[in-house]
Design goal:
Strand content: 15-25%
Number of helices: 10
Radius of gyration: 53 Å
Structural class: alpha+beta
Largest sheet: 9 strands, mixed
Order of helices and strands: HHEHHEEEEEEHHEEHEHEEEEHEEEH
Distance between the termini: 137 Å
């Protein structure tokens, strides 16, 4: 084979493969080979670099990134599909202005839902306090309390069976089934609802009410010879408290006694206490009202309820009772009520009775 010569005549000893081919086919083949070789070198370098980085990451405590190795190796793997994250459920409702919390220490009234209970102005009208329109004005003026809290909201619904309603500080009884009546018991009548001996008794006076289904209790007793005020109610709790001495509900009596009473001496002795067969007893107040013809009219106020207590006290100080009339029980007065008649208590009287016994 002849060795090609250079232009200067010297032989060209370079290998033919080292020279580029001028032909189109030769150039394309050489270019493709060169590019393939270059890609191979790049891939090997990438593998070596990736391995080096992997070692470095392992040495530093970081895990190698597998996606980088895959890309460096020239192999494409499908990316793992991410699980769709559900967005949090949002509510566009505005928070209530007044959230439900524990009952206040003051023990405020529990508001009833619509349709339950009765509207406050209607309850007041039924109780005889005022007309509905006037009751609404009283509510707006802050004169009405429900369970110890002033109410200004119109249309508030309450449970008349349990709510404690006050107007201007005085309790209003709004339970329709409650009965409170005053009786002027005549002399000679028994303070019982029935009598086995056929003697006239309180039950004879209220027979029609009992027949209509009312179950009445008499608040305390008056002996047969004592006349005057006797309360009857179907509220057993009220009756019990009015009779219990711990609530100190006063009872007022007018007594006509033998002899002219020395006001100061007798009053002092009765207020300090007199020893009786069942223990000491005393009065809260004592006053001489009239003197004449060997008799005295005196007023006795006390809160004890022992049997014949007034008669025994006056007899112990030397002035036996000729006539005895009870005129007051707490805020309720007998007034000019005729013997043997009944009177329904007024709203103010009932409210003050309940206040007197903390109900």
């Amino acid at each position: 084979m002849n060795t090609p010569a250079r232009r200067d005549g010297t032989p060209d000893r370079r290998k033919r493969g080292a020279q580029p081919e001028r032909g189109g086919a030769g150039r394309g083949s050489s270019s493709r080979d060169a590019r393939s070789a270059q890609r191979g070198a790049t891939a090997r370098g990438a593998q070596q670099g990736g391995a080096g980085r992997g070692l470095a990451q392992r040495g530093s405590g970081q895990a190698p990134n597998p996606q980088r190795h895959t890309a460096a190796a020239g192999k494409k793997k499908p990316k793992p599909q991410r699980q769709a994250v559900q967005p949090p459920l949002l509510s566009n409702a505005k928070p209530a202005r007044h959230q439900n919390v524990e009952a206040a220490e003051s023990g405020g009234h529990t508001k009833l839902p619509w349709g339950e209970g009765e509207r406050l102005q209607k309850v007041l009208a039924k109780a005889g306090v005022a007309s509905r329109r006037a009751a609404e004005e009283m509510i707006a003026q802050g004169r009405v309390e429900v369970d110890g809290m002033i109410v200004r909201e119109q249309g508030l619904r309450i449970d008349p069976q349990h709510a404690v309603v006050r107007v201007d500080g005085t309790r209003v009884m709004v339970r329709e089934e409650l009965v409170h009546v005053a009786l002027n018991k005549p002399k000679g009548w028994q303070s019982t609802m029935s009598d086995d001996l056929g003697r006239p008794c309180v039950g004879d006076i209220v027979a029609e009410r009992v027949a209509a289904g009312q179950r009445l209790f008499h608040v305390g007793r008056l002996d047969a010879d004592t006349e005057g005020l006797l309360l009857l109610t179907n509220d057993g709790d009220l009756a019990h408290r009015l009779m219990h001495p711990s609530f100190e509900v006063s009872k007022t009596y007018l007594a006509t006694v033998h002899g002219e009473v020395n006001n100061r001496a007798v009053a002092k002795r009765l207020r300090e206490g007199v020893e009786l067969e069942d223990g000491p007893a005393k009065v809260d107040r004592f006053q001489v009202l009239e003197l004449g013809e060997g008799r005295s009219l005196v007023k006795v106020v006390l809160h004890e309820g022992r049997k014949h207590i007034v008669r025994r006290l006056l007899d112990a100080v030397g002035h036996p009772v000729v006539r005895l009339v009870r005129t007051h029980i707490g805020p309720v007065a007998l007034g000019d009520q005729r013997p043997g008649t009944l009177r329904v208590l007024g709203r103010d009287e009932i409210g003050k009775l309940y206040e007197a016994v903390s109900l």
